[in-house]
Structures are given as C-alpha cells and as structure tokens.
Automatic annotation (TrEMBL):
Belongs to the methylthiotransferase family. RimO subfamily. [4Fe-4S] cluster 1 binds at residues 29, 65, 94. It comes from Solimonas terrae. GO terms for molecular function: 4 iron, 4 sulfur cluster binding; aspartic acid methylthiotransferase activity; metal ion binding; protein methylthiotransferase activity. Binds 2 [4Fe-4S] clusters. One cluster is coordinated with 3 cysteines and an exchangeable S-adenosyl-L-methionine. Residues 149-386 form the Radical SAM core domain. This is Ribosomal protein uS12 methylthiotransferase RimO.
Length: 455
C-alpha cells in the first residue's frame, strides 16, 4: 500500500531544518550596492535566507555609508534600530573604515563585528559565529548572475575598487583604498552572465572609470582576454559585443576618453558620459586637488561632441567650497553656458570628517551657499529644459522600466541613467514588459522629463 506523507513522517523521515535567516540593510552608492549583492550571493550559496523583518532574523547585516554627515547619521540610525529590535548586528561598509570607524564602537559597543568595504570574509565569519551555514544540498541553485538588488533588466558592473586621487573634500581612498582594477576577462564574464540572465543595461561603475587598468604593470600578453586589454578602451570594446546598453559612470576627462567616442557614435556604447567636473574655477579646482582645469574640460567636451554629436553629458558640482568667491562662482555659471551639459547635480559643500578641505580658510557662510545653489540650479534648469525641447518630434529608443495600465508607462532613453536622470513617460497602453526596448516619438518635454507616444 502506498504510504502517505503523514505515514512517511511517522516512519521517522528527518524533517528538513529551517534555513538560518539574515536581515540585510544596504545603504550608500551603487558601488556599495554591488558589495551588498556579493555578500548576499555568498549568504545564499551557504544556505542562508533573507528576511524583511528584524524579529525573524538570526542576525542582521548592515552595509553602511560614511561619506558625508547625512550618510553617517542614516547609517547610525539603521544600526541603532537593528540593535534595538534584534541585538545581533554585523556592520560593514565605508563607515566601518577610515577615520569614522570608531564612532560605531563608541555608540554601539555590542555590535558583533565592524569591517570596511569589500571585506566579505569578515562579514561571513561574523555571521557564521552567530548561526552556522545550512550547507543544505537541497536548496535551490544560485542564479548564475548572483543575487541582484536592482530590477532584472539593469545591473551595476563594478570594474575596479579604490581611487588614486587625493581630492581634498573626499575620504573615499581612506575607506576603499587605492585603485585596484579587475582583469578584463573577469569583468566580461560577469557581464555575459548578466546579459544571458535578461539584463538589458550594464551600468559601468568605479571611483575612476577612466583610470581602469592604470594600476597594472604590463608585459607582453599580460592582462588580456579574447583580444581585449585591461584598459578603458578594451573594456568598452568587449562590452559593446554583448548587445546590451552600456552606460559609463564616473569618467574623468582624460585625453584617452576621446578613443571611446567612435564606439558611442556607432551605437556600440551609449552616447552618455557621467563626468564629475565638480567646479570650473581653476583656483577652486586647485584647492579641491582635482586633476583637470576648466579650459581643458571645455576643449575636451567640444572634441567629444565633434566625434559624437548625440553625446549626453551629466555631471556633479559643489558650490560653496572653502575659499570660493563670488568671482569663482560666476566663472562656474559662465562655464555652464559654454559647456551646455545635459544633466547636472549640485551639492552645497559639507565638511567630511577626515577630509583635508576642513583645514582650508574662508569657509563660505550657509546663506551664501544656499543662494549660490539656487542660482546654479536656475541656470542649469534653463539649459536642460531647452535641450529637452529640441527633442520634441524625434523618434528615440527607450528601455521600459514600468508598465502602468491607467497612466503613462515609464521608460528611459540613452540620456537617462536610472534614479539620477529624467524619465520618458509613454502614453497609451503597452503590452511589453519592463526590460523591453521600444521606439517612441517625443511629443512634449519639461525641465527634466520627456513625454512620448509609441511609434
């Protein structure tokens, strides 16, 4: 007679133990998000499951950010909440390294472990000490691309760690170390897995994408894979063969970036550059210890646009840097008129503990910074709005992010990185799913977004 499940259990079949549960909080920039994805992938490989509630977790991991004061406060709040509701907390990330790491132990002496970014071993060892891995052979196999925290159709691709610059307002090198590039073959294999899993957009990130490979000493035949060299151009050539959108972030305006422009003009890499110019006054840039002068960057922009007229450039700037005069600020506004950037973010200077800029003289009063911020944004808003108006009537390709049955669906063009740039609102009911690419005709625009109809 066939035995029922109940009969099998009563006959002594071993009950599968519950998988240990981990709560996970990821804070900070896309580079930190990639660190979180790698930790979660390792946790899943060892049989751990994630849980959205503190009380159900055997242990909580918090990946912190420690760059500016607001990020530090957010990280400390998250640690405090997890300690209050769970008590078994592992802390990692940028706040766990550099000059601010002692804050965590001073404020929360009972945290289980404190480690810096990319220190995956310390995180796993701390988790193991609380609850051993399941090592259950019946758990589902890991997806080949690992655990992702982004929507299925786009992913961040981190090509290096650390940075060799010594910008006076930044403490990232003290947290993430010096530049360490990943071999091009390793990066391309990860990218191939992502594309095969359905990723339509690869967002290339690092602290300095233009410096990719510069830390490696070359000998004949070294640091190559399938004819691609571990350099920025070789990486872009390799990624361009995968058929996905390739978007470049954190690109410094070095001369060799010119060599990427033909790939963008041919549509092999998105005609989009995220360049952290930060300022235009030579005097302020020198105080910031930035590696470029404003007249050079304008020449670079003109050279890029001569090769690739459709190029979209986004950037970030700091106003109110110590010693910035009204004349310096006016130079920045004049530079914006010349540069005609497409997308711009602006921050008011905020002291960062451990940054050398704190010791500079003539800190700008808060009310002056606020005034300059609004004048800057008003100037750039007019530029951005005019550039978007010129797109009305054009047919463009968009990547669909969200389908709405009762309202306009949401997509992005090559000019729009997720979460930081504008959107394209597509009128009419759409049958495609998020992650598909469509041709749409632009019918209207405002200061930041486009409105379109399906072609």
């Amino acid at each position: 007679m066939a035995r029922t499940p109940a009969a099998r259990r009563s006959a002594g079949a071993a009950k599968k133990p519950a998988a240990p549960k981990v709560g996970f909080v990821s804070l900070g920039c896309p580079k930190a998000l990639v660190d979180s994805e790698r930790i979660l992938t390792q946790l899943r490989a060892e049989g751990y499951q994630t849980t959205p509630t503190y009380d159900a977790a055997d242990v909580v991991v918090i990946n912190t950010c420690g760059f500016i004061d607001a990020a530090v406060e957010e990280s400390l709040d998250a640690i405090g909440e997890a300690m209050a509701e769970n008590g078994k907390v592992v802390v990692t990330g940028c706040l766990g390294a550099g000059p601010k790491s002692n804050i965590i132990r001073d404020k929360f002496p009972d945290v289980l472990s404190v480690s810096g970014p990319q220190d995956y071993t310390s995180v796993m060892n701390a988790v193991h000490a609380v609850v051993p891995p399941a090592h259950d052979p019946f758990l589902d196999l890991l997806p080949p691309q690992g655990i992702k925290l982004t929507p299925k159709h786009y992913a961040y691709l981190k090509i290096s760690e650390g940075c060799n610059h010594k910008c006076s307002f930044c403490i990232i090198p003290s947290m993430r170390g010096k530049l360490a590039s990943r071999p091009v073959g390793e990066v391309l294999r990860e990218a191939e897995k992502l594309v095969k899993s359905g990723v339509q957009e690869l967002l290339v990130i690092s602290q300095d994408t233009s410096a990719y490979g510069a830390d490696l000493k070359y000998a004949k035949g070294q640091w190559r894979d399938r004819d691609y060299e571990t350099r920025m151009l070789g990486l872009c050539e390799g990624l361009s063969d995968l058929g996905a959108w390739v978007r470049l972030h954190y690109v410094y305006p070095y001369p060799h970036v010119d060599h990427i422009m033909p790939l963008m003009a041919e549509g092999k890499v998105l005609p989009y550059l995220d360049v952290p110019f930060q300022h235009a006054s030579t005097r302020v840039l020198k105080a910031m210890k930035r590696p470029a002068a404003s007249e050079d960057t304008l020449k670079r922009i003109r050279a890029w646009r001569n090769i690739c007229p459709d190029l979209t450039i986004r950037s970030t700037f700091i106003v109110g840097f110590p010693g910035e005069t009204e004349q310096d600020f006016q130079l920045l506004l004049d530079w914006l008129d010349e540069a005609q950037l497409d997308r711009v973010g602006c921050f008011q200077y905020s002291p960062v503990e451990g940054a050398t800029a704190n010791a500079l003289a003539d800190h700008v009063p808060a009310e002056v910074m606020e005034d300059r911020y609004h004048r800057f944004m008003e100037k750039q808003q007019a530029i951005s709005a005019a550039k978007l108006q010129r797109k009305i009537g054009q047919t463009i390709e968009v990547l669909v992010d969200e389908i709405n049955e009762d309202a306009a669906s949401v997509g992005r063009s090559w000019a729009d990185a997720p979460e930081i740039d504008g959107k394209v609102y597509i009128q009419g009911k759409l049958k495609p799913l998020p992650g598909q690419r469509l041709k749409v005709k632009v019918v209207d625009a405002d200061e930041y977004d486009l409105f379109a109809k399906l072609v």
